[in-house]
Design brief:
The protein is 20% helix and 34% strand. It has 203 residues and is of the alpha/beta class. The strands form three sheets. The chain has a seven-stranded mixed beta sheet with strand order 1-2-3-4-5-6-7. It has a six-stranded mixed beta sheet with strand order 8-9-10-11-14-15. The longest helix has 13 residues.
C-alpha cells in the first residue's frame, strides 16, 4: 500500500510500488489545497484509482511511454482523469489528453512542478522538479548507479548522458533528492561524481 515517502511544510509525496517490474508510482500533493498529481499510471489500476480518489489527484503525468509505465492509463482515463505525456512519446499510449512541453510549470494547488525534457531512455523522456523543494522525479532517466537503459533501438546512450549532465547535474544542487521510476532514491550529489565512469563503461 502507499506510504508517505517525503514531506515538507507545503507538499507531501506518497509512493506505491506496482506491477511485475516494480514500478514506482508517486503522488505529489499540496497540503493546503489537497490537490495532487500522479506520476506514471504504471499498473494495478484499481489500487491507483483508489489512491487518486483518496488523495485528491486531478491529473496524471507520464515520465515516458514504455509499456511498464502506462498499463493503467486506459482505466485511469475511463475514470475521468486527464493524462499527459510528451509529444515524442505520445504514440506509445493508447490514448492521452494533453501534451507535456519542455520547461513549463504544472500547478498543483500552491505547488509548481517544472517539466524537464531529458531524452535518451526514450525520445520523449521527461523529469519533473518541484520548485522550492529539493525534489526531482527522474523517471527512467537517472537511477542510483547510472542512467536508464539505452539498449532498445529507440534509445541512445550519448543522448541520455547529455540529458543527465546538462539538464540534471548542472541544474540541481547536490542535496536534491532523486525519485526514480524503479528502485531506491538517490541524490544528485551521490551520482554526479560518477558521470565519467558511466561514460567510460558505456551504459
Amino acid at each position: 500500500m502507499t506510504t508517505k515517502h517525503w514531506e515538507d511544510s507545503r507538499a507531501e509525496i506518497h509512493k506505491v510500488v506496482v506491477g511485475p517490474w516494480e514500478n514506482n508510482v508517486f503522488i505529489l500533493r499540496c497540503k493546503r489545497s489537497g490537490d495532487a498529481v500522479l506520476l506514471d499510471a504504471a499498473n494495478e489500476h484499481e489500487l491507483l484509482l483508489e489512491l487518486c480518489q483518496g488523495l485528491g489527484v486531478r491529473k496524471v503525468l507520464e515520465t515516458h511511454g514504455h509499456q511498464d509505465h502506462i498499463q493503467a492509463v486506459p482505466q485511469i482515463r475511463d475514470a475521468g482523469y486527464e493524462v499527459g505525456i510528451t509529444a515524442a512519446d505520445a504514440a506509445r499510449l493508447p490514448s492521452y489528453d494533453f501534451v507535456l512541453e519542455d520547461e513549463t510549470v504544472i500547478e498543483v494547488g500552491d505547488l509548481r512542478l517544472r517539466t524537464i525534457l531529458t531524452p535518451g531512455h526514450t525520445a520523449g523522456s521527461m523529469c519533473f522538479a518541484l520548485e522550492g523543494s529539493p525534489i526531482l522525479f527522474s523517471g527512467d532517466t537517472l537511477f542510483p548507479g547510472g542512467p536508464g537503459n539505452t539498449k532498445p533501438a529507440d534509445a541512445d546512450f550519448d543522448t541520455i548522458i547529455r540529458s543527465i549532465e546538462d539538464r540534471l547535474f548542472s541544474a540541481f544542487t547536490p542535496d536534491t533528492l532523486v525519485l526514480p521510476g524503479h528502485g531506491l532514491d538517490t541524490t544528485i550529489g551521490k551520482e554526479s561524481p560518477h558521470l565519467q565512469e558511466w561514460i567510460d563503461r558505456g551504459w
